[in-house]
Structure formats: C-alpha cells, structure tokens
C-alpha cells in the first residue's frame, strides 16, 4: 500500500537542507561588521549571502555527490597512449568552478580586482568566504589553499622571469585558463623531518633543473604547478642543503612533465579530492629564491596553509554546531523540543565554546596577517604565534565537536545521507596535514624563541582587555590566567621542557581566545559571546572539581550576561 505523503515541515526527522548558512549565522554577521571596514562589508554582503545559500543547498549536494564518487587515475588513453589523467566527477568540477572562478578564493589575495572590489582584498574576506564554503565542502579547500599559498610564495621569492611566465594563470578567474597549485614535500623516509629530504636536483644547460625522487603524499597531484623541496647535487646534508623548486605539470610544448602519479590514496576523509604518490623522473623544475634556503621559503607557504587549516577547522565546527542547533530546535521528544531540555542546552554550549573560540582566532589571525603584510611593527611576531596556535588547537577540537554534534542527530547522523559523518571523517585531516600536533606545538615554542612572539602576544591581549572594559573581577581572572600560561610556556622553553609544548600551546590558545571573545562581545553587545568567553575560562583553563556543580563567579557578570547562569559544560 502506498505511504501517505508527509509535509517536510511536519516530518519528525528534521532536515535543514536549503538553509542559508550566512543568514542564519548572526554571530558571523556581527563579527564581520566589527572587523571589516563598513564599505567593504556592505560590498561583500551579497556575496556572503550567495555563498551561504549555496553552502546550505546546491554546494552541499555537490559535496555529497563528489564524496561518494572519488577521483580515478587513468594511466593510458583508450588508444594506448601513455598519458595520465585524473578523472574527477562533474560535481567536483563544478565546485572547482565555484571556488576558484566565481568566488576567486585561490587568487583574490593576488589580484587588484575580485568580486567587483577594486584594490587588494584583505585576508579576512578570503577566510570568511572559505569559512562558509568549507561548511559544505572540505576536500576542495585543500587545493584552494595550496593555490593561494603557492602563489604567495612565488610572488615573494620567485624571479621576475618566473612571475612573468606563470603568475597570470595562477591569478586568472577564467575557469578554462586558471591553474591550481600543490605542494610535494612529504617523503617516506623524511615525513616532518625536512632535513632528511632525499629528492635530488641536477642543473640543466638551459638554467632549469631536473628533479629525481619519490614524494609520498601529494594532494592535488595533477595541479598546474607544485612547490617541491629537493637537495641540489653536492649540497650539504641537513636543512641547509634543501632548496625550493617550482614544478609545472606541463612543459613549454604542452607535453606532460617527466613525473608519474604512481597511485591515488584511499583516504578516510577528503575523498572528493585526489591525493597521490609522485615519482619524479628527471622532471623539469625551476629554482625559487636562493639555493639552500628552501625550508625557510617553504615555511612561509606552510604557515599560510596552517592558517587556512585553522579556518577550515573553524568552518567544520560551525557547520556541525548549526546542524545540532537546528535538530535541537526542530526535533521533539517526550513532548518537548530538544533545545528546551536543560541537559541538551548544556550539550549545545559544550559544542559552541570550541567552535566560537576557533572563529575568534580566525578573525584575530587574519587581522594579524593583514598587518604583517603591511609591514606593521611586531605584527609578524604576532602572526607567527597565532598561526600555529589555531592550527594546533582548532584542528584537534574539530574532531571532537563534529563527533559530538553527530550524536545530537542520533542514528540519522551516523548515516552517510546527512553531512555529519562526512564532517567527522574530514575533521581528522587537520591535525595531520601541514604538521602533526606535536610538530605544530613545538612550532609555537619556536615562534617564542626565534621571533620573540610571547611579549607581543601579551601586549596584544592587554590592549584587548583595556579596550573591552570588562567587570574588574573577570578582567583580572583573564589577565592572571594568561600570565600563568606565559609562565608555563617559559618552562616549556627550558632544557627538557618541550614535553610541555602541547599543554603550553593549549593554555595560550584558550586564554587568548577567551580575551579576544570577551573583547568582541563588549564591542558587538553579544551576550552569548560574553557567556562563551566566560565558559572558556571556567572550563578550559581554570582548575575545577568534577564532583561539584560549578558556575562562573557572580562578579564576572554584567549587562552582557545571558539570563541563565553559566552552567557547566564539561
């Protein structure tokens, strides 16, 4: 017997597909108004709204289709020609068009006009758009980030000849013309130990180089260009012998360069985007910057990618939280909406806190990047510590937040038809790609030691606290907690102290994000944001007794407070 039709609005299984992920995110709108100039924010508003609608609808559909239909490597044509190509599903190709051509996410930082805005686009716009895009599709944002980062590195270190030859296609918005970027760094025997790079570079008579060796994990392996680390013949062992090269996919005559994609990886997540193993067989490449300075030059690209990694983790968490909030508002059980149940309200806050911390750190770090690129004093030192902080902590938080948010949807969340399971799988990449958690936590200490970043971060946070004019007791608690985090970082810098690197990085992240969130709340008047800032301090920083109910001290609160007390979220 046919089943009666049930209208979507009365169906017991809530499905938020089709929501505009910008229009429903009032906190994002408030933060953009705070951080962006009024004219730019007004100009970008229609673009944010359009991408928010796509992310909640068509883009989400394309992402699901591409995830279920991963790319395939073909080694020969049907007539037997030895010409490799990666066949991508049309859904993925359409997402490429949206990201790289229509919204210009890989090129906008390197153009004088994008989306109708004349002049350079500040990093925050790119990251706000990425924040929305990644809420639907995570995998493609890896090639988008690498294209942006490769172009930045090439502009910074490349010769005028390389720029003249290759920059136009990297900054083009014409989908049939534009080129994508990649990084081929990882080797089986080296991994994060770049000093152990074994790929060799031999000079050619025409001034180019020939690369020979294997690269073990290469995402976007058929990209138009890749940055590759290799050791010039006769160069010393260690980092000082590693140089940076630009590797084009095609040679001047249009033929494929001399390297093979051995196979594609069968990955836990980011299935829509190809990752593969590369065998370099005398591939033509061009030296970028100064010989022997490859690691230093590549570090700029890696740091830019690490920031993008933090942005993507923040976006994943936001999508997970918004799905959980929608289900809690629409799903009824035991005669009530889930969101009306005290325990569910507590669980939702438990999800919101790390998600909002990451969002705040995205805005703070993007602003530091803009100031650093403008040459402002101390801005680079601030950027150098904020970048590994967000990469380390936000990427780890995303793994838990996406998993816990899936639980709110219940059994349906475990089914691949919804976005929850894909987000859980994708979230695990962030803690591995561009440096595992240990590597990135140690980079926090490196920034403190080499760049003098800790006093700069302290001055930055002090200025935010002064401007926020918080209740004295709350301001004092924030200040004292940050001072203790700095002391812990100081201990980690001592001989034998690196075992504390992760603990110190988490402490600095939590204290900095709590201070910045409180400043944002004071500036925007967001009671919810002030509430979350208190919860960061109360439950992610300060000691607590797990056997006692706990709430924020009454003297932490003022007119920004939410009506209910700050209940425990642990």
Describe the protein.
There is one protein chain. This protein is an alpha+beta fold and 570 residues long. Helix content is 51%, strand content 12%. The strands form four sheets. It has a five-stranded mixed β-barrel. Helix 8 packs parallel to helix 10 (379-409), helix 10 (379-409) runs antiparallel to helix 11 and helix 15 (501-524) packs antiparallel against helix 16 (527-540). It starts with 25 loop residues before the first helix and ends in a 30-residue tail after the last helix.
Keywords:
alpha+beta, globular, 16 helices, 570 residues
Blueprint of the fold:
Elements: H1 26-35, H2 38-56, H3 58-68, E1 72-74, E2 85-87, H4 90-102, E3 113-114, E4 117-118, H5 123-133, H6 141-157, H7 160-170, E5 181-184, E6 200-203, E7 209-219, E8 225-232, E9 242-248, E10 259-264, E11 275-287, H8 294-330, E12 332-333, E13 336-337, H9 342-373, H10 379-409, H11 420-427, H12 437-451, H13 453-468, H14 472-493, H15 501-524, H16 527-540
Parallel strand pairs: 5-8, 6-8
Antiparallel strand pairs: 1-2, 3-4, 6-7, 7-11, 8-9, 9-11, 10-11, 12-13
